[in-house]
Amino acid sequence: MPGNILVSTAYLPPVEYFSLISQADEILIESNENYIKQSYRNRCYILSAHGPQLLSVPVYLGSLHKTSLKEIRIDYSKRWQQVHLRAIIASYNSSPYFQFYFEEIERIISRKNEFLLDLNTELMHLIIKMLKLKIKLSQTTYFEPIGEDGNDFRYKISPKLKSQYANREYIQVFDTGIGFVQGLSIIDLIFNTGPEAINYL
Predict the structure, then answer these.
(1) pLDDT tens per residue, range 45-76
(2) What's the predicted TM-score (pTM) here?
(3) What's the number of domains the chain is made of?
(4) CB count in 10 Å sphere of residue 163
(5) What is the domain range of residue 106?
């Protein structure tokens, strides 16, 4: 899908997200929508010894029901950084490429970005570099209502929606007894396949 595509911001997004954007020339990240709870905007899933594990970045929503995404601040009163990093280490320390990629991910998560959008954008730039994708990344300057645009994917990838996407299987660290686990963060693919990750998108 050459050209521009419009997507939501996401925290360490699922493989499906990167499979989609890998086909584009430019990605527009929605920054002006009203924040949506329980979405990939502040959460991801990794594979632990006990199965898929949710990692969620706590945020302040303010006093109003509708808060612009670009104004969403991260809540550091909860020790989420330590929780996330320990969970990632426990899940992927024995993966083939963990030592090659973890340090840079740790560096960004350990920073105290004030806004969720900034954290997500830094991680996006890093993952794009790790995957060696040649994509221009920018943010929207205004909110465009949902229409018939075939390149608008802001609300099509969600943990609340059953995905039709099935990524090519690779060896995962843990055998969950149910076979290959879909819907995981891109870091699951990167830690397990390293430079070959791009071939699985």
Answers:
(1) 999 999 999 999 999 986 556 889 999 999 99
(2) 0.94
(3) 1
(4) 14
(5) 4-200
